[in-house]
Amino acid sequence: MRRLTLAAAALVSASLFTSCVPSAERFDPARLPDPADLSSRNAATEWYYVSGYLPESGLAFHWAQFKVNYRGIPYQAGHLAVADLRTGKFNVYENNSQNARFGFPPLRVEQGDWRLRQDAGSTYQLTAGPLNLTLTALKEPVVHPPGYSGTPEVGRLYYQSITRMDVKGTVALPGGETREARGLVWLDHQWGDQQPGAQAQWDWFGLHLSDGSDLMLYRVRNAAGQVVQVAGSLVDPQGVAREVPNVTMTPGRVYRSPSGREYVLGWQVQAGDLALALDAVRDEQELLTKNTSVAYWEGPVRGTGTLNGQAITAEGMGEFVGGILTREEGGRFFPSGR
Predict the structure, then answer these.
(1) For the chain, which domains are there?
(2) Is the pLDDT of residue 337 over 50?
(3) Strands 200-209, 262-264: parallel, antiparallel or unpaired by DSSP?
């Protein structure tokens, strides 16, 4: 779900492409996508994510593939972060291949030798760096109300998810260990006219609740740090997505990373019959992704609270954008306008 000055990065790779690619399609809030249509779009910004907190395996991971269309010029950027929760080691891999292919149906997202492929029906294969995973959707795709994140001011992104997927497979860890991966993961697909990282930043959660429902929380901030949108949706055990009205996300504990950026890692969430306290499983999860020129925190979170008068626990992933990288950090500074 989320984060980069990729329109800027496209300029660096402009010489790799011809200018005959059609201009990006415009965002239209009156025309929301079919939840089941996960096909790639000709948008200014697009990404696919698969994120998972796997406590049984002692792992957490976040795979992302980004595509940006800058004045008809496509740019691809991918990265993968893997946290070994048993040893505390955290490894980040970046994929700069401009050899990318997309297809639907069935879904196919390929960047170099990193691939997310739909085999048949609800089964998908994710092979990327150390990941060799089979994902089985336990719910159908949804469009999160109101159908997009963001505002006209900061740009908007249509927002689809498969919020609950069973994962099996292996993760190859540094040092030669290959660990079995088991648990639940979350798949996101977003696209639209937003330029994340510079134009918009956010605080996001994708959570699996102990009652079988899934909770998405999204707090969007503008370039000045002002909150311009707070959205939430609850996908019930049957797979129906509904808006969580009047949701609030109150910041709590703050972590200062080695780069000097501050990320809120402790949160209180309130909305009607929902009350949830959330915190990071581990703090050291900052990603300084050079091929997207964005700094953000992405990692496992858990919490406790109540929903409809019943006690619940929550496990999943959080993502909090810390801004763009400086030149000294390896970032690429470009004008933020399109």
Answers:
(1) 6-25+36-329 (2.40.370.10)
(2) no
(3) unpaired
